[in-house]
Amino acid sequence: MSRGTAVVVGGGIGGLAAAIGLRRIGWDVTVLERAPAFEDVGAGISMHANGVRALDALGVGEAVRAAVRPLYTGGTRAPDGRLLARMDGAALERRLGTPVVGVLRADLHRVLREALPTGCVRTGEEVTGLDGLPDADLVVAADGVQSRLRAELFPRHPGAVYSGTTVLRAVTERPPLGPIDDLALTWGPGAEFGHLVFVDGRVEWHAVLDVPPGVRHPDSLAEMRRRFGGWHDPVPALLDATRPEDVLHHDIHELRTPLPAFTVGRVALLGDAAHAMTPNLGQGASQALEDAVVLAARLAGAPTVTEALRRYDAERRRRTQSVARAARQAGRMGHGLTHPLATALRDTALWLAPSELTLRAALRHADWAPPRLR
What is the pLDDT of residues 177-228, one digit of tens each? Predict the structure, then answer.
C-alpha cells in the first residue's frame, strides 16, 4: 500500500523494532515512550535463530552481532550437577545458520535506538488512552505487559495475571573464575537457576521461584545464597561475583487468557501487549521482533491498512499464542514440579531422551523465516 503515518506507543524492544520496520517500508513514524529517558539497565536475553533472522530483516542484524556471544555449550542439570540434557549449539548452527546467542538487553536496545533518526522517539510522553494521540493511519500498541491501550480496546478481558513465579536476576560484576558453560539451566523442586555468558565474559544469572506475588527480601543476594548456595558449581561462584545492588526482582505476569484479536480498527497490538508470556523458552523478545517484521511486511503488501492488519492478526495470533502455551508448559515441567517422584520422573525422561529429540524441541519455535520487507 502507499506510505502512511504511524504512532508507536512504547519504546521497548518491540516498539523500536516496529518503528524500524515501518520506516523501512517508507512510513512516517513517531514513538511515544513514557519514561523521561532511556536508562541502560536490565539483564540479558538469549535469542534463538528466529530473533536473529528478524533483526536481519529489519536491517540491524550486523550491528547486533557485534554485541552478541554465540552460545554453544551447556544444557539442563539437576541441583547436584548431573547433566540431564545437553545443548548442542553447533548442531543448531548447522540447522539454522546461527546458534543461540546472548546479548545484554541494554546493548540490543541501544542498537535499535541508533537505527532510528533523531526526533523519531519522544520520551516523557505518557499515553493513557487512544484519545489525545496524534492523528495517524496506524497506532501500534507496544506498551507492555500492563498495556493501557489493550485494556481500553478489550475492557472485558482479564488482562495480565500473575504467573505464579517471581524472577531474581543480575549481571555479574566480573567474569567468574574457571570454565563455565555458555548457557545453562538447573531445575530443582519449585525453583530454577540459569545463566548465560556475554561477549565481555560477564554472566547473567536468573533464579525463578514459585512463591506468592509481592514477596520481597531485605537482602535479595543473601536470600539467593540461602536458596542456591548448595547447588552445583558455578552457581555459588556466580552469586559471589554479584553486587547486592545489581539484583533485580520482578514478578512475572502473563496473558493466560488469549486475546480474541491483535487488532481493533487502526490499532495493532505488538509484543507483550499482545501476548505476554513466561520466559521459560526465552522467546519473549524474539516474538516481539517477529511481530514487528510481519506488521511491516503486511502493510507493505496489502492494499489497505485494514487488510494488512487482518493478515497480521491471522498470522501472528496463532503463532505467538502457541509459543506462550509452550512456555507455560515448560515452566510447569521445570520449576513447577515439587514432588520428589515427579521431579525424578522428569529428570529420567530428560536423561533418556535421544539428542535428536532434544534438538527438534529447540527447532520447534526457532525455525522461522521472516517475510521480505521490500
Answer: 788 999 999 999 999 999 999 999 999 999 999 999 999 999 999 999 999 9
Which residues lie below 8 Å from residue 136, measured CB to CB, with a gap of 6+? 4, 5, 6, 7, 30, 266
Number of domains in the chain: 1
Using CA atoms, how far residue 283 sits from 47, 229, 271, in Å, is 7, 28, 11
| CA nearest neighbour of 47 among 373, 368, 351 | 368
Q: Taking Cα atoms as reference points, which of 252, 253, 250, 294 lies closest to residue 270?
A: 294
Q: In terms of DSSP bridges, do strands 263-264 and 267-269 run parallel, antiparallel, or are they unpaired?
A: antiparallel
**Residue located via cell numbers 550486523:** 62
Number of helices and strands in the chain (H, E) = 13, 16
CA-to-CA distance for 225 and 242, rounded, in angstroms?
Answer: 11
28-33/121-123 β-pairing: parallel
Q: Which of 304, 42, 295, 74 is nearest to 195 (CA)?
A: 74
pTM of the model: 0.96
**Residue owning grid cell 548442531:** 91
Q: What is the per-residue pLDDT across 144-154, written as a single tens digit (0 to 9) for each?
A: 999 999 999 99
In a domain, 27, yes or no: yes
Domain that holds residue 112: 5-71+100-160+255-332
